[in-house]
Design a protein that fits this description.
This protein is α/β, with parallel strands linked by helices. The chain is 31% helix and 29% strand. The strands form 2 sheets. A 6-stranded mixed sheet has the order 6-7-8-3-9-10, sandwiched between helices. It has a 4-stranded antiparallel sheet with strand order 2-1-4-5, with no helix packed on it. It starts with 5 loop residues before the first strand and ends with a strand. GO terms for molecular function: ATP binding; ATP hydrolysis activity.
Length: 218
């Protein structure tokens, strides 16, 4: 892994929010063609760290680089990146397919076949014409993953990607994430499922007590 090119470099990242230090001195390298997992208690700042990598939140200290671009200086949002962090703002009365087609029209890079492929990957092909308002929490999470992979990103950031998803659903997602990794995609996910981290990840960290600590993969 040490010979792989880095997709993400975090150097001495710190974040203070409303006089509360969320984390400090975070260093992290995410190689291309790898899956990195971060676990930790609720409120430790896992989602905040993903938002900082995406440029949605500015760190109080430190530098974020994605594919060699300094986020906040060279780019506001990292190029070639897909993300599922917050609940996506889908139009509830539209179908899953129509929501993704709308996103495809915005970026201008995705066609109908790609939309259908993304829905199939997350197990929503049979529900593609169903209004999103009728979706369960797990189905909405699947649709969120579909929008994150829609543009076939080189960096994929996923916050608790299989939370609320049933066993059949997460198995298919695991297979796809491993396939993406083998094609060179860098993936960073947060999860408190130790089995998930052990199955998927090449490197893992624990975010706790304001620090990011490497943990062994079992």
């Amino acid at each position: 892994m040490n010979n792989q090119q880095s997709a993400v470099e975090l150097n001495a990242i710190g974040k203070v929010f409303r006089s509360h230090t969320i984390f400090e001195d975070i260093d992290l390298t995410i190689p291309q063609g790898s899956i990195t997992g971060i676990s930790g208690p609720n409120g430790a700042g896992k989602s905040m760290l993903l938002r900082i990598i995406c440029g949605l939140v500015q760190p109080t200290n430190g530098q974020v680089s994605v594919f060699g671009q300094r986020i906040g200086r060279d780019a506001d949002f990292p190029a070639r990146t897909g993300a599922l962090i917050d609940a996506p703002g889908f139009v509830p009365n539209w179908s899953a397919e129509k929501n993704l087609r709308m996103l495809a029209e915005i970026n201008g890079k995705v066609n109908a076949a790609t939309v259908a492929e993304a829905l199939s990957i997350v197990g929503l092909a049979e529900n593609s014409h169903q209004p999103v308002r009728t979706f369960s929490v797990g189905m909405q999470k699947r649709l969120g993953i579909a929008q994150a992979i829609l543009d076939k990103p080189d960096l994929l950031l996923l916050d608790e990607p299989t939370d609320s998803i049933d066993q059949d659903g997460w198995r298919g997602i695991y297979e796809y994430l491993i396939e993406l990794k083998d094609k060179g995609t860098a993936i960073l996910l947060t999860s408190n499922k130790l089995d998930e981290i052990n199955i998927l990840c090449d490197q893992a960290y624990l975010l706790k007590d304001k620090k990011l600590t490497p943990v062994p993969i079992q």
